[in-house]
Amino acid sequence: MKQQILIVDDEPDLIRLLEYSLQQAGFETATAADGESALAKARRRVPDLIVLDLMLPDLPGTEVCRQLRADKRTQAVPVIMLTARGDEVDRVVGFELGADDFVTKPFSVREVVLRIRAILRRGAGSDASGDPRLGVGPLRIEPDAHRAFVDGAEIALTALEFKLLGTLLSRVGRVQTRDQLLREVWGMSGDLQTRTVDTHVKRLREKLGSGRDLLETVRGIGYRIIDPAD
Predict the structure, then answer these.
(1) For 4-124, CATH number?
(2) What is the pLDDT of residue 123?
(3) Among 38, 51, 94, 228, which is least packed, fewest CB within 10 Å?
(4) At the top level of CATH, which class does the domain 134-225 belong to?
(5) Do residues 49 and 5 make contact, with C-beta atoms less than 8 angstroms apart?
């Protein structure tokens, strides 16, 4: 079955261009010209990935992204945000709301297709670790299957949450600074002043159930996962 990409933009020419290119690349596509339509379509049939414009006629893309992340049905769907602005602050806002990537207009359609494939591969697989599985205490992930478990029960994580958890689990007991995590998980400048890491750690911790206390905050430095057996 083909993977479906939901394209959300109010520019008809851009939608047609992305639709054609993605269909040529082997994807199925759905489209929406405003935020409310996008949310309705995503809830009716959950897509494999959403390409979301930041500037929409009814709801801003940031609000659409926030609502997607607040809904259990769509909270794990990868989101690539499109914007005409190139300021890194816009990227920070998008990442803090749970976006997985950020593309500035004008862009190469080929680049968008490549980024979509990279995110879907990340969602399918193996960039968190070369190990077939990683775990400590009640926490376990299977990087090749992109699955995470707490006490044996599977939990739903976004691609970035999964990458963050995989990075921390691969370095149990070692403190990871916010700068390190920004560079390695988000690919952003380590000296940027942002709450991106803290926001995602908070969301991740809320999903870890009995394993939440294993994700420790090292005040003024960063985060680490501890081994309860130590």
Answers:
(1) 3.40.50.2300
(2) 59
(3) 228
(4) mainly alpha
(5) yes
